[in-house]
Write a sequence for this structure.
């Protein structure tokens, strides 16, 4: 045990020296406290003294803060009570893990700051940034929002914590503040959040913004924390030289600003960095610094936790088990002692605050006692009247319930009839629309088809005539004439190609307006989907021998036969399956190109190490599901996906994303109308692929979901 005490004394000597320098910097504030001309000035000095101890000596910080709250209550300064609660008491409660108390104090502060009446008579020193009472109150509310951000971030509610930081920044932007530490802390904490969530570019932006604000506002006490956060960014990017630079700068800034907590954490980060680099001597140096600075700072969690464990591990790796045992024993003995001591102090602090809360509640209850007597008398007087009214209402209610039951039955019958009428109306409207469109397209076809036939026939005839000429070099024509003949042949081919496109558009319009028999009949949905899936696949294979894709079916065998027009619904399913096969085919082409990119990226280490890029397997899946009173048909693929900005347009007539000449844009519009005419719904879900890592994880694809009523 004596040996342990000697080791402890040896390593704590530098910290005693540092404490003396730090104490010298507080002399002016302590002098101001003893010479304060009045209680209000003394209250402000106590606030500044508590701030100087917040990151170095929690006991002293609480002592000065409690005294400041006492004076603020005595002098009727509610905004200063809220200020002490937010900046110190709530903050320290959160630091020790008591988030319940921290949140309670922050809420009490916010209740005070929301009341504009508290602006009256508030004491504001002349050197404060906001001398206007209204702005002073709003600035205090901004600090409280910051503390709420700290609390919720510590509790794991990141989204809510970040929102409070943003609300804080918004307040100080509105106040046009030039000195507020909110700009530093808010951006710093948001930057740390982006570090933790691996959004490293955003982390750099917010941390550097915080660093800039710390210089312009003078709040350099946070520089060590900001620089350490930047070091963590480059650690995640495996840029060791940059990590060392920012960690060293953080250590230097923390020491200059006397921020012991930041110095401890940075020393610990450096220790782990050097341990990772197998530089044990440097790792032990910084681990010892963190270990004994934590003892001086009374941070039991660091003494018992990572610094002690790392020291023991480093000694063990060198084979020095005795030293490893020494550090573990010291850390446990001192850590337990500090933890118990700190726990007792916090418990006392909580008891004082809860006793104060109980006192206030007791006063409120006494004030309400007289009012309650009056209310009780009025209550008994009204009970008799209420009893009579209750009996009358009960009898009337029983009669209404019986009438409501009859009305409910009639309502259900009417709704059922109305639903049938709506379905019939939809089908009639669709039939009328299709009939009108049929007349229009028939007229268009009649007017366009004849000149279109002439264009196509004569372009083909021109090609045949030019081919009958034979080799141009044997005709005895000049080179210029040969060029002209070649241009004529090329022009004829283009005329024929675009004429065929026009014919396909007219054909698509005729299909869109074509009416089926309109006769619904019980249909096996599984058999219909399976038939059109295989029809689509073999049709594509017949057109393109190089096309290849996997197709799957996941049919629910419990689905009963559904009353539909099979030809119309078959057209819908066929269109969706053809689109799915087209999408996986397009992605297959992209993947062929991406292999070259992946090879280059692997050489340049653009792709993160350890990421296994899996080969792309084009797949189309058709599934059905019984939903009780409805059925669901799903056609999904793992193709390129549909960008979110055009999802709402895909059901519009003539809108298509396919290359020119490969689609008319009428297929999905026709599918939408047919499904609606059957009383169903059609929806689309899709995600696009972005970059190689997403491809490697199999992301991307589209899913069309059709729901149809069974009856």
């Amino acid at each position: 045990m004596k040996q342990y005490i000697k080791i402890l004394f040896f390593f704590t000597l530098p910290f005693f020296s540092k404490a003396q320098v730090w104490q010298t910097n507080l002399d002016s504030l302590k002098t101001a406290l003893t010479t304060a001309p009045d209680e209000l000035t003394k209250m402000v000095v106590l606030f500044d003294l508590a701030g100087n101890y917040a990151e170095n000596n929690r006991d002293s910080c609480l002592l000065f803060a409690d005294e400041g709250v006492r004076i603020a209550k005595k002098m009727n300064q509610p905004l200063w009570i809220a200020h002490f609660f937010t900046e110190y008491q709530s903050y320290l409660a959160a630091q020790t893990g008591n988030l319940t108390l921290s949140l309670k104090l922050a809420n009490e502060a916010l209740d005070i700051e929301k009341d504009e009446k508290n602006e009256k008579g508030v004491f504001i020193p002349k050197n404060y940034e906001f001398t206007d009472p209204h702005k002073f109150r709003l600035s205090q509310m901004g600090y409280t929002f910051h503390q709420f951000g700290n609390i919720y971030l510590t509790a794991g509610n990141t989204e809510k914590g970040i929102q409070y930081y943003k609300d804080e920044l918004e307040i100080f932007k509105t106040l046009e503040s030039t000195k507020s530490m909110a700009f530093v802390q808010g951006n710093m904490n948001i930057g740390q959040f982006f570090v933790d969530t691996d959004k490293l570019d955003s982390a750099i932006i917010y941390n550097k913004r915080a660093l800039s604000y710390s210089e312009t506002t003078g709040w350099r006490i946070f520089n060590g924390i900001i620089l350490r956060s930047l070091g963590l960014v480059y650690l995640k990017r495996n840029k060791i030289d940059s990590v060392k630079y920012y960690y060293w700068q953080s250590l230097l800034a923390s020491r200059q600003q006397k921020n012991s907590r930041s110095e401890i954490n940075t020393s610990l980060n450096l220790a782990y960095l050097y341990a990772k680099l197998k530089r044990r001597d440097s790792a032990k140096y910084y681990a010892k610094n963190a270990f004994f600075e934590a003892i001086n700072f009374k941070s039991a969690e660091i003494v018992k936790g990572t610094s002690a464990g790392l020291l023991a591990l480093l000694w063990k790796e060198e084979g020095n088990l005795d030293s490893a045992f020494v550090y573990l024993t010291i850390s446990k003995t001192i850590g337990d002692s500090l933890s118990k001591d700190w726990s007792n102090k916090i418990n006392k602090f909580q008891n004082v605050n809860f006793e104060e809360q109980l006192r206030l509640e007791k006063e409120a209850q006494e004030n309400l006692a007289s009012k309650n007597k009056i209310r009780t008398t009025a209550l008994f007087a009204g009970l008799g009247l209420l009893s009579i009214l209750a009996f009358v209402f009960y009898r009337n209610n029983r009669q209404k319930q019986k009438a409501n039951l009859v009305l409910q039955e009639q309502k259900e019958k009417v709704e059922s009839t109305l639903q049938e009428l709506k379905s019939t109306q939809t089908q009639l409207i669709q039939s009328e629309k299709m009939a009108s469109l049929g007349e229009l397209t028939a007229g268009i076809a009649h007017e366009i088809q004849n000149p279109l036939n002439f264009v196509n026939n004569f372009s083909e005839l021109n090609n045949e005539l030019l081919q009958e000429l034979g080799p141009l070099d044997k005709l005895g024509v000049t080179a210029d004439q040969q060029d002209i003949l070649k241009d004529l042949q090329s022009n004829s081919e283009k005329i024929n190609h675009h004429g065929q496109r026009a014919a396909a558009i007219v054909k698509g319009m005729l299909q869109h307006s074509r009416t089926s028999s309109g006769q619904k009949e019980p249909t096996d949905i599984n058999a219909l989907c399976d038939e059109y899936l295989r029809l689509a696949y073999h049709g594509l294979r017949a057109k393109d021998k190089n096309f290849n894709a996997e197709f799957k079916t996941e049919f629910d065998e419990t689905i009963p036969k559904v009353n539909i027009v099979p030809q119309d619904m078959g057209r819908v399913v066929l269109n969706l399956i053809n689109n799915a096969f087209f999408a996986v085919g397009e992605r297959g082409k992209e993947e062929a190109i991406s292999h070259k990119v992946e090879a280059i990226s692997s050489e340049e280490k653009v792709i993160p190490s350890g990421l296994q890029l899996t080969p792309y397997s084009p797949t189309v899946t058709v599934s059905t599901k019984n939903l009780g009173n409805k059925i669901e048909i799903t056609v999904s693929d793992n193709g390129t996906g549909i960008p979110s900005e055009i999802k709402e347009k895909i059901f519009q007539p003539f809108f298509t994303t396919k290359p020119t000449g490969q689609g008319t844009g009428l297929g999905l519009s026709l599918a939408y109308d047919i499904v609606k005419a059957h009383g169903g719904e059609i929806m689309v879900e899709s995600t696009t692929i972005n970059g190689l890592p997403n491809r490697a994880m199999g992301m991307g694809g589209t899913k069309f979901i059709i729901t149809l009523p069974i009856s």
